[in-house]
Automatic annotation (TrEMBL):
Xref: Gene3D superfamilies: 1.10.1740.10, 3.10.450.50, Winged helix-like DNA-binding domain superfamily/Winged helix DNA-binding domain (1.10.10.10)
Segments forming domain RNA polymerase sigma-70 region: 7-69
Species: Phytomonospora endophytica
NCBIfam families: PRK09636.1, sigma70-ECF, SigX4
Keywords: Sigma factor, Transcription, Transcription regulation
Subunit (UniProt): Interacts transiently with the RNA polymerase catalytic core formed by RpoA, RpoB, RpoC and RpoZ (2 alpha, 1 beta, 1 beta' and 1 omega subunit) to form the RNA polymerase holoenzyme that can initiate transcription.
Any single biological process term in GO: DNA-templated transcription initiation
Protein name: RNA polymerase sigma-70 factor (ECF subfamily)
Amino acid sequence: MDRDEEFEELRPLLFTIAYRILGSVGEAEDAVQETWLRWEATDTEPASAKSFLSAVVTRISIDVLRSARVRREEYVGPWFPEPLLTDPYEDPERSAELADSVSMAALLLLERLSPLERAVFVLREVFAFGFPDIAAAVGRSEAACRQLAVRARRHMEGGRPRFEADRREREELAGRFFDAMAEGDVESLRELLSADVRMVGDSGGKAPQFSRGMSVGFDNVTRMLVLFLPTFTEIGGTIEPHEVNGRPGVVLRYREGGILSVWSLDIQEGRIQTIRAVNNPDKLAHLGPVADAWAALREVGRVRK
């Protein structure tokens, strides 16, 4: 296998490492491209291309994350990761870790960690890298990496829910939810949403907040869903169930299939606890043509009058 083929074989792994560190599809793709350029520029033949390239993409991602943190602190409104509809990397032996680590909830927990803690956690807990390789990737001693891993694991475990639905339960409940919200069926929604359900939108100040920034509680969230979604489908909008970051979600499309918003559901104890809506067009562009959200909102308003 030549170097080009070797890199292409490892590309899905490199992307999925970078995405979990950065929470951004575009930045992860840029990190992989920079890794390729460095791979092309080196004359040395590493003992393990996987270890070498994983270390390079990790170091690049740490540097990018440090500068991204400043931008995220200045972000308008809630910040969510860019939605990922398909994870290109598959590993049957790590499928549970891969699915859990890419969820919106997990990526937001990772935001609490320092860049080094985040990188060590991703390499160790998600991909089961050994500490010698992790130390080489982050430029710290093995002992320091073990301490970073312990701290990161403690932070992550402290923020995770105690009881989370299994995959089959999530999919069944999500299907009922999508049917109920498309029909404006409040009584069915009452059975599916928790009493303190939250709906939070990330627009970055560049799109209307279909969830009004943050709606909390059954009555507020249901009112928003019932007022907007049935009318949205009436004007030709579509509600397309789709796995989003390894969890049930939905893609809202406006005229001619342009993407309007992507929602991800957190389901615990048999109820939907959180609905996260990514509305910022900059975070949707990697999925295809983006719809004019303002035009959609105006049309919904005209029809409802």
